[in-house]
Design goal:
- This protein is about 40% helix and about 15% strand.
- The protein is an alpha/beta fold.
- The protein has two domains: about 10-105 and about 215-310, 3-Layer(aba) Sandwich (Rossmann fold), CATH 3.40.50.150; about 130-210, Putative methyltransferase TM0872, insert domain (DNA polymerase, domain 1), CATH 1.10.150.170.
- Strands 3-2-1-4-5-7-6 form a seven-stranded mixed sheet, with helices on both faces.
- It is globular.
- The N and C termini lie far apart (about 50 Å).
- The protein binds S-adenosylmethionine.
- The site of S-adenosylmethionine has 23 residues, from helix 2 and strand 2.
Length: about 300
């Protein structure tokens, strides 16, 4: 398995304000890079490290072994943090970290079908026990919805052409491999699209991956549940790599900070929204030039942080 360089490691762990005896949650354990930095600061505290990828957790178990029972690994989805914490008998934690997206081994292992760099079955499931994969998204999604996925998740200018080409091809036989998908996408693009500096396949593969793993849906569920599972003064830190994700995080934090949305002239609150968060990062924290030079994947990273306030 290839290594994964944790992004914004120093910044994220600093913003978590780790207390040695606190309880922390890493919702995207991966190979355990951020988890190790949190566990390193614990003395008597606990860390719950979640990932939906069982293979990643196997490596994390080795990488985090030295922290013994201070670290609990959970195979699960961060969209279900409430259920996961209930099962562990934990009401609220002192801090949470989410480092969204895919890990380097997920992208680099040909068998996972995430990448156009090698030819393998189209799969892209982070959780390999999930019943539907990229095969289902590519071959069974109605053409119009496929176009929206490519346009909205991939910001793909040629979404209509690509969706049409996939539809034409799958009427003959299903698209089964990343190589076939790559060929269809290239064939659907005009010469100008193929000449772009960024690989013309990148946006389509990313969009399908986001759909397969319902990445925005899980983020929405996590953002809804997180404030209720933080202790007062506890922080939620989210590192995102996609503008849609960053927008969702920013919006959720701001609406937690705003609380009640009733017009001022209302004598009593009828909306029921409570102020739960204080936004710490008025502007997202981004990696410095040295980190980007050492790890180009960090280029689009944005870290946002909010702190739980006592309910008012
Ligand atoms: C960018 S990597 C995290 C790397 C990690 N911070 C490290 O330092 O090794 C993202 C990880 O989050 C996991 N993941 C993504 N969405 C998830 C979700 N909804 N629930 C649980 N894990 C998720 C992926 O499987 C992947 O292993």
């Amino acid at each position: 398995m290839t290594a994964h360089a944790p992004v914004l490691l120093g910044e994220a762990v600093r913003e978590l304000n780790v207390k040695p005896d606190g309880i922390y949650l890493d919702g995207t354990c991966g190979l355990g890079g951020h988890s190790a930095a949190i566990a390193e600061r614990l003395r008597g505290g606990k860390l719950i490290s979640i990932d939906r990828d069982a293979a990643a957790l196997e490596t994390a178990a080795v990488n985090l072994e030295r922290y013994g029972d201070a670290v609990t690994l959970v195979h699960g989805n961060f969209g279900n943090i409430a259920e996961i914490l209930d099962e562990l008998g934990i009401d609220a934690v002192d801090g949470m970290l989410y480092d969204l997206g895919v890990s380097s081994p997920q992208l680099d292992e040909p068998g996972r079908g995430f990448s156009y760099a090698s030819d393998s079955a189209v799969d892209m499931r982070m959780d390999q026990s999930q019943p539907y994969s990229a095969y289902n998204v590519i071959n069974e999604t109605p053409e119009e919805r496929l176009r929206e996925i490519l346009r909205d998740y991939g910001q793909e200018r040629y979404a209509g052409r690509i969706a049409r080409a996939v539809e034409r091809r799958r009427r003959e036989r299903p698209v089964a491999t990343t190589g076939e998908l790559a060929q269809i996408v290239r064939g659907a693009m005009p010469p100008a699209g193929l000449r772009e500096r960024q690989n013309p396949l990148r946006r389509t593969f990313m969009a399908i991956r986001i759909a397969v793993n319902d990445e925005l849906g899980e983020l929405e569920r996590m953002l809804g549940a997180a404030p209720g599972r933080l202790k007062t003064g506890g922080r939620v830190c989210v590192i995102s790599f996609h503008s849609l994700e960053d927008r969702m995080v920013k919006k959720a934090f701001l609406s937690g900070e705003r609380g009640c949305t009733c017009p001022r002239e209302f004598p009593v609150c009828t909306c029921g929204f409570k102020r739960t968060l204080n936004v710490i990062t008025k502007r997202a924290i981004v990696p410095g030039d040295a980190e980007i030079a050492a790890n180009p994947r960090a280029r689009s990273a944005k870290l946002r942080v909010a702190e739980k306030v006592s309910e008012q």
